[in-house]
Amino acid sequence: MFVVGNLINALAIVIDTVLNIYMWIVIISTLISWVNPDPYNPIIRFLYGITEPLFAFVRRHLPIPQMGIDFSPLIVILAIVFLRAFVVNTLFDIAKYR
Prior knowledge:
Elements: H1 2-33, H2 42-61, H3 72-96
């Protein structure tokens, strides 16, 4: 049964790493959006391409008034922190007791 525990532990590590990388991508994308970047730059296109669908989903489904401040990156980061604290820690606990 230790093989199943190791598999779950490895899965938890991969999920935690992916969520951590995506959180930094969201932060970088948000910071870059403040300086009016070149929209034809491939790095900027990658950052917006990977973050904007999730931001648009949050903007569509949360009743946030239009005050000129976009709170969708903050909500995405809070969701990532929640997933890391709940899902990843739960997987680590499951792996520990297998």
